[in-house]
Each structure stands twice: as C-alpha cells, then as structure tokens.
Here is the input.
Amino acid sequence: MTPQPESIKGLLEFLPLLQNTSPEYSRIGYWGDMSSRVSASTARDLFQYLHNNGFVLKDFDWEAWSDEAVTYLENRQKLQTADIFTLYQIITTHLRADQFVEGHYDAIIENGFLADILARMEQLTRP
Here is the structure.
C-alpha cells in the first residue's frame, strides 16, 4: 500500500511543526530529557501517522537501499531530485533503521531531515 493523496495532505500538516527552529519543548528522547524542536505528542503522532498511512513501505528491501538513503541525509540538496516514491523509500529506510539504531528517529527530527523530506513532498504534490 502506498499513501493516497488525502494521506499525503494529512502528513503535510506536520510540516510547520517540524520546521520549528528553536527548541521550545522538553521531551524524553533516546538520550533522556532533551530540549526539542518538536513536542513529544507531535513526534509520537507523526511516527504513528507514517506507519499507519503507508509511508513505511511493507515489501521494500530497505536494508539493501540504506546506503542510498544515507546519501540523501548527507547531501540534502539531493532531495531536490527525489520523486515521490523515492521519498517513501527514504522515510521507510530511516524509520526501519530506528528499530536497530535507537534514537535515529529523534535525530532525523532534530537535525531537520524529516522536515526537508516533507518539504520536498509538498513541492511535488503542490498543484
């Protein structure tokens, strides 16, 4: 199952919350209490939304694609070349990686990478 247009629209409602640049929230992350750009409820709700609405692809070999996914993290400009399906692959890989590298999800929120992915998705789906 891949996300439907209404699911993408719902996901993009999280974008302004992720684009907050000043730490305003205190939440418990992998490293304990942390000063965060995103509230605990937003981080939790977003994580669930991604999983429940098809953004984490079921039949995708994310481990085989993980080196490619890292290139987008290391070179954010490369996101500007990503199509919508590639964004799903990037999301899947990074969320699955969090199962093996605790705190990875927190890291992609705090360093703005998840916001960058959603911003690219917004560009691609804007009429």
